[in-house]
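Pasting as-is:
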Amino acid sequence: MNKAELIASVAEKSNMTKKAASDAVEAVFASISDALAAGDKVTIVGFGTFEVRDRKARQGVNPSTKEPIMIPATRVPAFKPGKSLREVVAPK
């Protein structure tokens, strides 16, 4: 499912116009992005948690020259699915 299909699905399930659904989806994405940029965690009960994780600096290998290189520390967004979502995706 891509973004356009998500917007169409939200519009259909909530009896909204596609324009209103697009605005709602964009607002949700912007709110999650803003919270993560501020260092906050976003928890949606039953769905999952969006958070920022720190990756330590580490040594890697340049695949073309086979020389060791240092990969700098970075911050990356991460998603941990909630129990309800895991059960829907992989029922017991």
